[in-house]
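Here is a typical protein record:
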Amino acid sequence: VWGIGGAIQSRDVYIEVQKIKCSDLNKPVSVLFTSHASMYEYIHLDFAIPDDIFNFEVTLLVSIAQINNNKIPKWIFHKSEYVGFRLLPLTYIEQIFGSFQTEPIITTSLNLSGQQAIVQERDAFNFYKQYASGCIFVPNKKKLTMSGAPSTIVTLEKEKKIIREGRFVKEISAILTTL
Protein backbone atom coordinates (compact mmCIF):
# COMPACT_ATOMS: atom_id res chain seq x y z
CA VAL A 1 0.00 0.00 0.00
CA TRP A 2 1.03 3.61 -0.32
CA GLY A 3 2.48 5.06 2.83
CA ILE A 4 3.19 8.30 4.59
CA GLY A 5 6.06 8.93 6.94
CA GLY A 6 9.04 10.99 7.87
CA ALA A 7 12.05 11.50 10.11
CA ILE A 8 11.88 9.31 13.19
CA GLN A 9 13.48 11.86 15.53
CA SER A 10 11.00 14.64 14.72
CA ARG A 11 7.95 14.77 16.96
CA ASP A 12 6.55 17.48 14.67
CA VAL A 13 6.66 15.06 11.72
CA TYR A 14 4.91 12.38 13.79
CA ILE A 15 2.16 14.85 14.79
CA GLU A 16 1.74 16.05 11.20
CA VAL A 17 1.38 12.48 9.92
CA GLN A 18 -1.24 11.68 12.55
CA LYS A 19 -3.16 14.89 11.83
CA ILE A 20 -3.14 14.21 8.08
CA LYS A 21 -4.58 10.74 8.72
CA CYS A 22 -7.04 12.07 11.34
CA SER A 23 -5.53 9.52 13.76
CA ASP A 24 -5.32 9.67 17.52
CA LEU A 25 -2.03 11.29 18.56
CA ASN A 26 -1.44 8.31 20.85
CA LYS A 27 -1.62 5.76 18.03
CA PRO A 28 1.69 3.96 17.42
CA VAL A 29 3.30 3.92 13.98
CA SER A 30 5.86 1.53 12.56
CA VAL A 31 9.53 2.11 11.85
CA LEU A 32 10.92 1.40 8.39
CA PHE A 33 14.52 0.37 7.69
CA THR A 34 16.33 -0.37 4.42
CA SER A 35 19.04 -2.66 5.80
CA HIS A 36 19.62 -5.22 8.51
CA ALA A 37 22.64 -3.22 9.69
CA SER A 38 20.59 -0.10 10.36
CA MET A 39 17.82 -2.17 11.95
CA TYR A 40 20.22 -3.83 14.38
CA GLU A 41 21.51 -0.39 15.43
CA TYR A 42 18.06 0.20 16.89
CA ILE A 43 16.96 -3.20 18.16
CA HIS A 44 18.59 -6.09 19.97
CA LEU A 45 17.50 -9.66 19.35
CA ASP A 46 18.96 -12.92 20.62
CA PHE A 47 18.53 -14.46 17.18
CA ALA A 48 18.96 -13.43 13.55
CA ILE A 49 15.92 -12.63 11.48
CA PRO A 50 16.00 -14.50 8.17
CA ASP A 51 16.25 -12.14 5.19
CA ASP A 52 13.46 -13.84 3.30
CA ILE A 53 10.77 -13.02 5.87
CA PHE A 54 10.80 -9.43 4.62
CA ASN A 55 9.71 -10.58 1.17
CA PHE A 56 6.25 -11.30 2.60
CA GLU A 57 4.60 -8.04 3.71
CA VAL A 58 5.40 -8.45 7.41
CA THR A 59 5.53 -6.09 10.36
CA LEU A 60 7.57 -7.41 13.27
CA LEU A 61 6.87 -6.30 16.81
CA VAL A 62 9.71 -6.13 19.32
CA SER A 63 9.30 -5.33 22.99
CA ILE A 64 10.41 -1.96 24.28
CA ALA A 65 13.14 -3.78 26.25
CA GLN A 66 14.74 -4.78 22.92
CA ILE A 67 15.30 -1.18 21.81
CA ASN A 68 18.98 -0.19 21.92
CA ASN A 69 19.77 2.85 24.08
CA ASN A 70 16.26 4.30 23.79
CA LYS A 71 17.01 5.13 20.14
CA ILE A 72 13.35 5.10 19.19
CA PRO A 73 11.43 8.05 20.64
CA LYS A 74 8.60 7.22 23.02
CA TRP A 75 5.97 9.00 20.91
CA ILE A 76 6.44 6.32 18.24
CA PHE A 77 4.98 3.61 20.49
CA HIS A 78 3.30 5.60 23.33
CA LYS A 79 1.86 3.20 25.91
CA SER A 80 2.36 0.10 23.76
CA GLU A 81 4.71 -2.62 24.95
CA TYR A 82 5.99 -3.03 21.39
CA VAL A 83 7.53 -1.20 18.47
CA GLY A 84 6.56 -2.37 14.99
CA PHE A 85 9.22 -2.42 12.33
CA ARG A 86 9.54 -3.26 8.68
CA LEU A 87 12.50 -3.76 6.40
CA LEU A 88 12.41 -2.91 2.69
CA PRO A 89 15.91 -3.49 1.28
CA LEU A 90 15.08 -1.95 -2.09
CA THR A 91 17.39 0.44 -3.92
CA TYR A 92 14.41 2.67 -4.67
CA ILE A 93 13.57 3.01 -0.96
CA GLU A 94 17.26 3.56 -0.07
CA GLN A 95 17.34 6.46 -2.56
CA ILE A 96 14.27 8.02 -0.93
CA PHE A 97 15.91 7.72 2.49
CA GLY A 98 19.11 9.20 1.07
CA SER A 99 17.31 12.21 -0.36
CA PHE A 100 15.84 12.94 3.07
CA GLN A 101 19.12 12.07 4.85
CA THR A 102 17.39 9.98 7.48
CA GLU A 103 17.05 6.35 8.41
CA PRO A 104 14.94 4.92 9.75
CA ILE A 105 11.65 6.68 9.17
CA ILE A 106 8.26 6.36 10.75
CA THR A 107 5.64 5.00 8.41
CA THR A 108 1.98 4.17 8.24
CA SER A 109 -0.53 3.56 5.49
CA LEU A 110 -1.64 6.48 3.36
CA ASN A 111 -5.32 6.90 4.12
CA LEU A 112 -7.63 8.60 6.55
CA SER A 113 -7.92 6.59 9.75
CA GLY A 114 -10.53 3.87 9.35
CA GLN A 115 -10.62 4.07 5.56
CA GLN A 116 -9.22 1.65 3.01
CA ALA A 117 -5.50 1.83 2.23
CA ILE A 118 -4.51 3.43 -1.07
CA VAL A 119 -2.96 1.21 -3.75
CA GLN A 120 -3.12 3.34 -6.92
CA GLU A 121 -0.67 6.18 -7.58
CA ARG A 122 -3.37 8.53 -8.87
CA ASP A 123 -5.35 8.02 -5.64
CA ALA A 124 -2.19 8.63 -3.60
CA PHE A 125 -1.49 11.82 -5.51
CA ASN A 126 -5.09 13.00 -5.03
CA PHE A 127 -4.81 12.28 -1.29
CA TYR A 128 -1.57 14.25 -1.23
CA LYS A 129 -3.17 17.24 -2.98
CA GLN A 130 -6.22 17.21 -0.71
CA TYR A 131 -4.71 16.39 2.70
CA ALA A 132 -0.92 16.60 2.57
CA SER A 133 0.08 19.31 0.11
CA GLY A 134 2.72 20.59 2.54
CA CYS A 135 4.55 17.25 2.30
CA ILE A 136 6.73 15.83 -0.45
CA PHE A 137 5.07 13.39 -2.85
CA VAL A 138 7.39 10.62 -4.02
CA PRO A 139 6.10 8.98 -7.22
CA ASN A 140 6.28 5.24 -7.80
CA LYS A 141 9.10 5.39 -10.37
CA LYS A 142 9.62 1.63 -10.32
CA LYS A 143 5.89 1.02 -10.84
CA LEU A 144 5.80 -1.42 -7.94
CA THR A 145 2.48 -3.24 -7.60
CA MET A 146 0.67 -2.55 -4.36
CA SER A 147 -1.38 -5.46 -3.01
CA GLY A 148 -3.76 -3.50 -0.81
CA ALA A 149 -3.56 -6.26 1.79
CA PRO A 150 -2.53 -5.50 5.36
CA SER A 151 0.82 -6.85 6.50
CA THR A 152 1.06 -9.90 8.72
CA ILE A 153 1.99 -8.72 12.22
CA VAL A 154 4.24 -10.96 14.32
CA THR A 155 5.56 -10.57 17.86
CA LEU A 156 9.22 -11.51 18.28
CA GLU A 157 9.37 -12.91 21.78
CA LYS A 158 10.28 -16.39 22.99
CA GLU A 159 6.99 -17.52 21.53
CA LYS A 160 6.56 -15.92 18.11
CA LYS A 161 2.87 -15.10 17.66
CA ILE A 162 0.96 -13.92 14.63
CA ILE A 163 -1.23 -11.04 15.78
CA ARG A 164 -2.78 -10.20 12.39
CA GLU A 165 -2.87 -12.40 9.32
CA GLY A 166 -1.95 -10.96 5.94
CA ARG A 167 -1.88 -12.60 2.55
CA PHE A 168 1.48 -14.38 3.14
CA VAL A 169 0.68 -15.82 6.56
CA LYS A 170 1.57 -19.40 5.50
CA GLU A 171 5.01 -18.41 4.22
CA ILE A 172 5.71 -16.31 7.32
CA SER A 173 4.53 -19.12 9.62
CA ALA A 174 6.95 -21.50 7.93
CA ILE A 175 9.85 -19.09 8.45
CA LEU A 176 8.91 -18.54 12.11
CA THR A 177 9.26 -22.26 12.79
CA THR A 178 12.98 -21.93 11.98
CA LEU A 179 13.60 -19.28 14.65
In short: Strands lie at 3-7, 30-33, 58-63, 82-87, 105-109, 152-155, 161-164. The two ends are 28 Å apart (CA to CA). The helical segments are 11-21, 36-42, 91-100, 121-131, 169-176.
